[in-house]
Amino acid sequence: MTAACGSKTEPPPVASRAEEEVAHDLVKTAEALVNQPPEPIPAATKQAAVDPKALLGTWNIRHIVYIQDGKPRPPEQPIVEGAWTFEDGGRFVKKGGNEAEGTFVLTADGLVISAFGTVEYSLDKLTATELVVTQMITENMGSTTVLDRVP
């Protein structure tokens, strides 16, 4: 039918050998990063730890607010439903999307999770039913994650 209309269809682009090698290297690097053991949480953070009892349990991600140029964007639902679980003894498990296992430490004003490297969150809110944490990648860019406790 396209030939009758006079339009030509072009074959899909073919990746060069070099592009295939670069893509393969990227996948191998990502796999190596994901499969390495989590970094230890710094001793100073562990010394500042508070009782994590209020945090223990499983929390579903309600939404994420991305911060761009220092301004929060509208809340976004996660592409894949996810949950964070905090266990007694400092074990952390993230399910959904990029799954991870590691450790955590709760401090008076923050939450430090070591799973894909060590990530420091400010503790914006922690109630019996809601957890709100913010991670800043740079001074003007980051994200706030809002989670609901699973009953």
Describe this structure in words.
Helix content is 19%, strand content 42%. The chain is built from 3 helices and 9 strands; from the N terminus they run αααβββββββββ. The chain has helices spanning 2-5, 17-35, 43-47; strands at residues 57-68, 71-72, 83-87, 91-95, 100-106, 110-114, 118-126, 130-138, 141-149. The protein has an 8-stranded antiparallel barrel with strand order 1-3-4-5-6-7-8-9.
Low-confidence stretches: none
Shape: globular
**Count of alpha and pi helical runs:** 3
Structural class: alpha+beta
Residue share in helix = 10-25%
Q: Using DSSP, what is the number of strands?
A: 9
CA distance, first residue to last residue: 58 Å
Widest sheet: strand ordering: 1-3-4-5-6-7-8-9
Mean pLDDT: 87
> Sheet with the most strands?
8 strands, antiparallel, barrel
Query: Order of SSEs, N→C?
Result: HHHEEEEEEEEE
The radius of gyration computed from the alpha-carbon positions, rounded to a whole number of angstroms, is 21 Å
Our estimate of the beta-strand percent is 35-45%
Question: Short description, anyone?
Answer:
The chain is of the alpha+beta class and 151 residues long. It has helices at 2-5, 17-35, 43-47; strands at 57-68, 71-72, 83-87, 91-95, 100-106, 110-114, 118-126, 130-138, 141-149.
